[in-house]
Specification:
Length: 743
């Protein structure tokens, strides 16, 4: 049996191999990354929250009393370097302790640790020098910093800024630097000793800060900090999708195994009936026919699992180029390895057993008559009036309807390949839209200045070409994970582009919400929304007046005076300025500057996206080739007698190949059509998982070109498979029909 169908069984092995390979790789990568993130945060005392006040804390140690918390001041400076910008961080001693990932730690003056990505991109080397603010530092190593796992310049950035990186120096060296961009900007990091009820303890500390007379400028818990929490998006999505995707491969393999076993058992029905009559038991015969499918599934699952063990390393290495973590190695869960090996074996054996059981329940006398070998008209075929069609059409319709399991396998298989390919292209389109039409293009005025303290238009008026904004970080009542900005702007503001979903400009003197946030919160125009301030926990209620067309952005705008009145700030208060030119602002007043005049600074996402698209396209082609080959192979074998008879009747091999192999064309098109809504559903679920994990909304964009390209590739693979299978049709001799008649 293996010799006759070795290529077919090889295809089944490939399908099961892909399922086990994906499951083992995804769970191994996710588990290893999760272990790295958790161990790094625990061993190096990652902050539980960070906050900024408008003045140094009056009694920082008083906040620690009775709470078991450690509060440490974090000092940083942004310094321009050739080809980018470096944020110098004072080495943490009690919170956010850096981990040396290569070289050695800081031992003497004028030494620096760089993040590996910045060091690689700018061509620095261990032992070399880097000039910072006119001072030469010696690069003694690379470091991972617990509160900069994902290196973003600002909290509210979605993507890394090209050329930006972090470096760790001693606090003394940092304080001695002249000419830095701004005097030291101080923040405070909180690390709790008691790991139970972290949210409650942080709430208590925040209330102590406010009640102690200090004014909070910024408060961010670690789960709301994208620099810390972003890796969990990858981890969660891999964990969520690992089994469903693998199960799809396993089920496809099980279906085709069931089809093949059914064909084998039916062709052997006379022999099975004879063995019954000779005293063989059903159990013995069932084990005989179960042995081969189980062996094939075991080979595929074991090979897939073994191949996945070394394959996880390059993926983790690639992810560590985006996330700055100490590499502690790859670890696989024994339970996941057992699932990868046993799940396909059990599913395949179950599918084969159900088919065998149906035949073995037939009486021995009936089996010996050979009734199982004869083609039977099923209910679906009987409902179709085939006499209305010409011969070629009748033949093709009957060919598909005679084997519903095979038809189901073809449709679902093509749908699976289409989903994989379409998702890759859709993800590329979604990320392109996010970068090209997202927050960066929102700015009409390209330079954003963020101040450490509240400013006021009466004391600090702005020049023409500059506009004031007041923003506070909020979350919906009862949904702390959905964090966004409530932004106040002047009625005549032009610094931000605001248009509704039809492209018409939106008034600035009303409350407007971005479309992705409105969909996520299920609010519409006229609805009221209660939000809670991240700083002091104060609730505010706003009524939605307009929907902003947006791609991935999450914010609400309202009149500046209305927001100031709602928060209790003086009229004319602002903390952010958008400008169409560089402003002469004292550096010590600034918390950060975002310059969007160079869009290429936000293009770092393109390389990994291209890699993803290339990988999933190759996988989709492989799936399509395997599935279409298996189906065409089955069709040819089941029609050997018909093909031989058609040759006797004078049909040419080319005509016969078209007649037999083209019968699957409607099923292929149907499978692709089914794949489009499945892709939408799959992407919607995955993007929702990412949004819940890291509060990042990815717009779902399916370009018509994505659909066309996917369809062309699927049809091209189908045509190539038919062309290769046509040679097998030509090799079937005319005397095949005579042999069958003689038998």
């Amino acid at each position: 049996m293996i010799a006759e169908n070795k290529s077919r069984y090889a295809g089944i092995v490939v399908l099961i191999l892909l399922g086990s390979f994906y499951f083992t790789t995804a769970t191994g990568i996710a588990g290893s990354m999760e272990r790295m993130v958790v161990q790094f945060g625990s061993a190096n005392l990652q902050e539980d929250a960070t906050f900024t006040t408008d003045q140094p804390l009056t009694k920082p140690t008083g906040l620690e009393d009775g709470t078991g918390a450690v509060i440490e001041q974090q000092v940083s400076r942004d310094v321009p370097v050739q080809g980018g910008e470096l944020r110098l961080l004072g080495r943490g001693e009690q919170v956010n302790v850096p981990a040396v990932t290569s070289g050695r730690g800081l031992q003497g003056p004028m030494e620096i640790l760089l993040d590996p990505g910045f060091m690689r991109d700018h061509g620095y080397r261990l032992g070399g020098a880097i000039t910072v603010a006119g001072r030469d530092f010696t690069v003694v190593g690379t470091a991972a910093v617990p509160n900069y796992v994902y290196i973003l310049k600002n909290f509210y950035d979605v993507l890394p800024t090209a050329g930006f990186g972090v470096g760790v120096v001693s606090p003394a060296d940092l304080a001695s630097l002249p000419g830095a961009v701004g005097n030291p900007v101080s923040t405070y990091s909180v690390r709790l000793a008691d790991r139970n009820d972290v949210a409650g303890q942080l709430r208590d500390i925040r209330e102590r800060v406010v009640s102690g007379g200090d004014s909070l400028v910024e408060w961010t818990a670690s789960q709301d900090n994208p620099r810390i929490h972003m890796p969990y998006g990858n981890i969660t999505s891999m964990q969520s999708m690992s089994f469903p995707v693998a199960a799809a491969f396993f089920l496809l393999g099980s279906v085709i195994v069931g089809v093949m076993v059914m064909r084998t058992v039916k062709s052997d029905s006379v022999a099975i009936g004879t063995l019954y009559a000779l005293g063989y038991r059903r159990r013995e015969l069932a084990l005989h026919y179960l042995a081969l499918p189980t062996l094939v599934a075991a080979i595929g699952s074991v090979l897939g699992t073994l191949l996945a063990l070394p394959a996880a390393r390059p993926v983790v290495t690639s992810m560590l180029s985006a996330y700055n973590l100490p590499d502690t190695g790859i670890a696989f869960s024994f339970s996941n390895l057992a699932i990868a090996v046993l799940a396909p074996v059990l599913l395949t054996a179950a599918a084969a057993f159900l088919v065998i059981r149906r035949v073995l329940r037939t009486r021995a006398v009936d089996l010996m008559k050979g009734d199982e070998q004869s083609a039977k008209v099923n209910r679906i075929e009987s409902l179709v009036r085939l006499d209305r069609f010409r011969f070629a059409t009748r033949f093709r319709i009957r060919e598909q309807l005679r084997s519903i399991p095979r038809l189901l396998f073809l449709v679902l298989g093509v749908a699976a390949a289409s989903v994989v390919m379409l998702f890759g292209l859709t993800f590329s389109s979604s990320m392109d839209t996010l970068t090209e039409q997202g927050s960066v293009t929102r700015y009409e005025y390209p330079i954003e200045y963020n101040f450490t303290r509240m400013q006021n238009l009466q004391q600090n008026p702005l020049p023409p070409g500059a506009e004031p904004y007041h923003t506070i970080r909020v979350h919906p009542q009862g949904r702390e994970s959905v964090e966004f900005y409530l932004t106040g702007l002047e009625p005549g503001s032009v610094g931000m582009r605001l248009a509704d979903t039809q492209g018409s400009p939106l008034p600035r003197d009303q409350v407007n919400i971005t479309a992705p946030l409105a969909d996520r919160l299920d609010v519409r125009v006229g609805d009221s929304l209660t939000v809670v301030s991240q700083l002091d926990g104060a609730p505010y209620t706003v009524r939605i007046d307009g929907i902003i067309q947006a791609y991935g952005e999450q914010f609400i705008t309202m009149p500046l005076d209305g927001l100031n009145a709602m928060t209790g700030d003086p009229a004319g208060s602002y903390r952010t300025v958008l400008a169409d030119h560089e402003l002469d602002v004292r550096p010590d007043l600034l918390a950060g500057v975002l310059d969007t005049r160079d869009p290429s600074a936000f293009d770092d996402i393109s390389a990994p996206t291209s890699l993803i698209v290339t990988s999933v396209t190759a996988l989709a082609v492989l799936i399509a080739v395997v599935i279409l080959f298996l189906v065409t192979s089955l069709i040819i074998d089941e029609n050997r007698q018909n093909i031989s008879l058609l040759k006797v009747l004078g049909y040419r091999s080319r005509e016969i190949a078209s007649l037999v192999l083209s019968s699957s064309t409607p099923a292929v098109v149907l499978g692709f059509a089914l794949g489009v809504p499945l892709t939408v559903g799959f992407a919607t679920v995955l993007y929702a998982v990412v949004a819940d994990a890291v509060n990042m909304v990815i717009p779902l964009v399916i370009s018509p070109w994505d659909v066309v390209i996917s369809l062309v590739v699927i049809l091209a693979v189908y045509q190539a498979t038919k062309w290769m299978s046509a040679r097998r049709v030509a090799q079937i001799p005319m005397n095949e029909a005579l042999k069958a008649g003689a038998e």
